[in-house]
Design goal:
The protein is an alpha+beta fold. Helices cover 47% and strands 20% of the residues. α4 crosses α6 and α11 packs across α12. The mean pLDDT is 90.
Length: 447
């Protein structure tokens, strides 16, 4: 194998690799001798097929396999021989006539265009000083969480009063029968259906016409199904509904007590408070880690200045800009950004892209120096967690990651980053610093 560095400009390299045709043919002959004894072809005794016939029949396929193997193994060896560390996977370009290569008539030649890791020495994590924000859930936080939980667990009680009439927020129990042109239609009837006025669960105009209704009242309302209604035979049609109001209930104020705790499946109010406090503290711990990581990345960014691989920066910027354009089209751009010109936004996001690439390279180098690894089990756990986000499609998600190494690599990257951060947090001078909940939960820009 011959390896020649064709060009070197900044962090960009083009490396040419040539594998002599004699070497390929030698490997093909060895492969033919290996498979010939196992061949069973019509007209020949098992294991007695002549090599020439095996080559004529299967030579191209076998040579194709050899070429693929050589491309994979030789590319890594070429990088090792050239003593370069790619910053990203190389782009490979075949420069030989593949028909002739497969026919065993020409050398296998290709070029690798790549960007190499910049030469820099990362900061020693032991020299870093960081403040870790700390905050624990207070009794006031717990009371607030209990009130919110009670609000989510709505209950209704029979509405009381001399003249009970249905109003916004009330829950009605009704029987109804829907008709088109006076005839009942499929799916248009129900018995003892619960409906909260204002919930917008029913078609437009249905709930509003029940305001003021009384228990036992029978009434007929008229509605029009939306043009985009999911049932095509009803879309845009006018219909009537014969309704009987059987009960009217008002939302009851939920009391957070022992009965409430048992109603949501817990053994006691104390157990509910314990679970809520633990959940709050987990949220606060996650927020504190985010701020600590942000502080770490700011320190690493300030401590390093070196040339960045242009293509990596370009790819990072393109990913950011695509999201910006999507947010702009959907009207989701932050007000501050919406006022800026594209030129100004691109300048700002270019700097963000450069920061992300720089920090990614620094973390990668610190991880490499400390032999940080992501185990197969850790990657599999992450993929399994991702698959659980798609109920009923878990198998397809798992197969996707198993069949797409690049997707698996993207899943591995954030795990690696977090492990490197953990390494630094365990090595650096980290001081716990109590802060308020408002300070902890104050929104910050993305890392």
């Amino acid at each position: 194998m011959q390896v020649v560095e064709k060009s070197s400009e900044g962090l960009s390299r083009v490396i040419a690799v040539t594998i002599p045709v004699a070497e390929l043919n030698e490997k093909l002959d060895a492969r033919l001798k290996e498979v010939a004894p196992q061949m069973k072809l019509k007209g020949f005794r098992p294991g007695k097929v002549p090599l020439a016939h095996v080559k004529k029949t299967f030579g191209r396929d076998l040579m194709g396999e050899i070429i693929n193997d050589q491309l994979n193994s030789s590319s890594q060896k070429a990088l090792d021989d050239a003593k370069v560390r790619p910053a990203a996977p190389a782009e490979m370009k075949l420069t030989s006539d593949m028909d002739k290569v497969i026919a065993g008539q020409e050398d296998l030649a290709y070029e690798m265009a790549l960007e190499v890791m910049p030469d820099f020495t990362p900061v020693d994590p032991k020299t870093l000083k960081l403040a870790r924000p700390t905050y624990e859930a207070s009794d006031a936080d717990l009371d607030e969480a209990l009130t919110e939980l009670a609000g989510q667990a709505k209950s209704y009680e029979d509405k009381k009063g001399k003249t009970v009439k249905a109003a916004d927020g009330d829950q009605l129990t009704i029987d109804f029968l829907g008709k088109l042109d006076g005839e009942p239609f499929e799916g248009g009837a129900a018995t003892d259906a619960d409906l909260v006025i204002g919930s917008n669960r029913f078609i437009p105009g249905f709930e509003e016409q029940l305001k003021g209704a009384k228990v036992g009242e029978e009434k007929t309302i008229e509605v029009t199904f939306p043009e985009d209604y999911q049932a095509a035979h009803l879309a845009g049609k006018k219909a009537t509904f014969d309704i009987t109001v059987k009960a009217i209930k008002a939302e009851a104020e939920a009391k957070v007590d022992e009965e409430f705790a048992k109603r949501i499946g817990l053994e006691s109010l104390d157990k509910l408070k314990e679970l809520l406090r633990n959940n709050l503290n987990q949220q606060y711990t996650a927020a504190a880690r985010f701020k600590l990581k942000r502080a770490l990345l700011d320190e690493l960014d300030k401590a390093h200045s070196f040339p960045l691989p242009p293509k990596m920066v370009e790819a990072e910027f393109e990913g950011i800009w695509q999201q910006v354009e999507a947010d702009k089209a959907a009207g989701r751009l932050p007000e501050e950004d919406a006022k800026k010109s594209d030129k100004k936004l691109k300048e700002e996001y270019q700097k963000i892209a450069e920061r992300r690439v720089r920090l990614g390279l620094v973390l990668a180098e610190i991880g490499r120096a400390n032999n940080v690894q992501v185990s197969d089990q850790e990657l599999n756990n992450a993929i399994m967690n991702e698959a659980r986000n798609y109920p009923g499609q878990e198998r397809q998600v798992l197969d996707f990651y198993r069949q797409n190494p690049n997707a698996a690599a993207q899943m591995r990257a954030p795990i690696y980053e977090e492990k490197v951060c953990d390494l630094i947090f365990g090595t650096a001078d980290v001081t716990d610093t109590p802060i308020t909940k408002e300070e902890l939960l104050k929104e910050e820009d993305e890392i």
